[in-house]
Amino acid sequence: MLRKIIFTAALLAGTALAGVSPASAAGPAVPKGFLLHDREVATDQAKKDEPADAENVWRASAKVGERFAVDFCAHDTVIASLPKDRIGQTGRAAARTVYLDVKGEIETAEQVILYRSEQAARAALGQFRAAVQKCGRSEVGKSGAYSRTLARVALGDEAWKSSAREYEDGEPVAGDDVVIARRANAVIVYLSSASAKPSAKSYTQQLAHTRQMLAKICQIAACAPRRQG
What we know:
By secondary structure, the protein is of the alpha+beta class. The protein is 25% helix and 33% strand.
């Protein structure tokens, strides 16, 4: 028993000296409750004995292979021989995604993805940018059109804001506004549905949430020491 205690203490001490907590030493993970909207999911689940609100449902997924919470095109399209559900998949270690579904459509999405390396996370954002650039504008039906914009944002190690709109007869009818950011080996996505024309105010909430998540992401991401605190 004494040898076991000494071995455990030595293991914990070695982990601390390495700058890694015992929990993170077990491998990358996005814990339940870590996302900002996890509290809404918990509140919905706590109401399981009450009549369900079928029109407004918060749900969470811990699937590592969950597709990016951003639609790059107006329809399923193969981009550079890479289907949309494969973009940003290579090198993933963990992920957690929260959605708010309203009448069967995604109203809000929050996503944190941990990659096995910073290089893999950078490559995932590279695929995101390439997909937007290749499928950022297309025709939808006889009188419709689709477009997605992309602009750099000064957040984290790199970040982008993007607005998508579907148009009918020149007027926006559906779309989303999204901020996607990276710090170290973590990629963060905040999306809200939208139907009005994009403006400077389109990203207010998403930028605020991204800043909140960036402030704590190093608790689970492999950030360099200078980025912590």
